[in-house]
Amino acid sequence: MISRLFGFDPARPQFYPRGLNLQVHGLRGLAALLVFVFHIYGMATLAGFWPAAAVESWGFMYFGRHAVELFFIISGYLIAGSVQRHGDARLFLIDRCIRIYPVFLAIHLIVFALGPPLHYKWMSGIAPAAWARAFVENALFLPGLFDLPLAQLNAWSLSYEAGFYLLCAAVWAVGRRLGRGAGWAVLVAATVPLLCLYPKAAYFLVGAAIQFLKPRLGLGTPAWLRLISPLWLAAMLTVATVNETAPLNMYLGCLPGFLFFWCILDGGCAVSAVLRWRVLQYLGTISYSFYLWSALVTFPLKRAIALYQPDPSGSWGAVVLFAALALPLSLVAAHLSFVWLEERAGQALRRAVRRRQAPALAAKEKEA
User: Fold this and answer.
1) What range defines the domain where residue 12 resides?
2) What is the mean pLDDT of residues 17-21?
3) Residue 360: what pLDDT?
4) Would you state the torsion angle of the CA atoms of residues 50, 53, 59, 61, taken in this order, to the nearest 10 degrees?
5) Long-range contacts of 12-16 (CB under 8 A, 24+ apart)
6) How many structural domains compose the chain?
7) CA–CA dist 208, 187 (Å, integer)
């Protein structure tokens, strides 16, 4: 009965996907978990109930902040392949919108409806015109790339994702119309200034480069390189964390990130067995919903615990309570979101797109 309510059947491949690279899928789940742990630390610190004496000594929690770069590597790898498989820039972008918007818009509407009356950050006392402008700006994923008010704090990364989708579509369209050389010219002309402005975006190129190089070079990964793969992951996260304001650190982190991702693609590395754990496969499946909904779920919890936390210097009891409530509630919200918004709404939208495309495809076949 519970499984029917939540739409969950453990035997269904949607939850433990087959046909995907299980290491990559598990890495997505691990990245989502690391980000969640960092948000527990960050929210508890900002709200004042993380023990003040332990804030500095637990600085390694900032590794989770840079697990988002793992998402960027995965996206670079998968999206570079996806645009080729679609073979059409417009259909590729439609598919990306169907993938991203159902979950995002559900939270978007909640935040903009409840934000002003709950005095949420910059929405407190906001004028109607400014509210409408921010509503549109956030719906178009502009704040993560431009100095604009951000409503869903986790959604800054979606701005990077959306920009990468547009770049991939543009490169593919130009390459198909004017030739591969023109496509490469667009890629170089766009990425050089963009990487100067947004150093984190370099991690998309890591995944895209591996997608492009690996089948062409046909190189296996040496056993010794796979054996020390956890060191490459630790090096990437450490370099990115040491000085977050230094763009050079972002670029330097790309090299160990490249080596780590190359290792896990082949499997048989030191972390392959961990990445294939069923819990990480499941988290990989719901990772997008988990990433976005966890921020919305934990926000009222953070406020409530901060309000009733008696010790101004913080308390481990409050932290444990916060984590113990935040994780299961976030998982339930993410699971329901995956079933109803990602899977069912997504499938319905894809069917609608196919119906609209059917006459045009039939006409093309007739002409051919």
Assistant:
1) 2-367
2) 75
3) 62
4) -30
5) 14/285, 14/343, 15/281, 15/282, 15/285, 16/278, 16/281, 16/282, 16/285
6) 1
7) 12
